[in-house]
Amino acid sequence: MNPNQAIVVGLLAAPVLVLMILRINATLVFLSLCLGYVLMQFLGADTQSFAETFMTHAAMSTNVMKLVLLLFPAVFTALFMIFTVRGAKLIVNILPAVAVGCLTVLLVVPLLPPGTSHAITGLTLWQQAVRLQALIVGAGSLISLLFLWLQRPRRSGDEKGKRH
Fold first, then answer.
1. pLDDT tens-digit profile of 74-111?
2. 3-class secondary structure for 98-151?
């Protein structure tokens, strides 16, 4: 495995392992990663110019600012959701965790330094991921929404098998 493939595998595996080991609700992290992408798209240029106003001596690249905007919601959601998945839900949590890993790869690689990004985008593994990006985003979104809907809290009067 060459170093560029190792970066892709690391970007894919790290979120999955962290989410599963720390029992973090991967559904909420996936949706937070989607929010980060929206923030990056709509606030990226404005945030860069705002940062340059206060930090003229520090040359922060646009990609670094975009990376911060992308990952900020997901990282803080993960921090607030540590040890929130219990019991059998942990096994089911693997599906949205894999979706988080795949989406992380798709969103982070283009923001890496140009040499690294260019080397990774030339890999067959990357080209396969790009071909599957609609499936990754669609399936991840559907799985996350289904899990979110199924996790709604029950009202105190609702009990299984209770008759009125």
1. 999 999 999 999 888 889 899 999 999 999 999 999 99
2. HHHHHHHHHHHHHHCCHHHHHHHHCCHHHHHHHHCHHHHHHHHHHHHHHHHHHC
Residue 156 lies in a domain: no
Rounded to two decimals, the pTM is: 0.85
Residue-wise pLDDT tens digits, 33-47: 999 999 999 987 777
Write out the residue range of the structural domain in which residue 69 sits. 3-149
Angle of helix 3-21 relative to helix 114-121, nearest 10 degrees, comes to 90
**Closest by alpha carbon to 103, among 8, 9, 6, 12?**
12
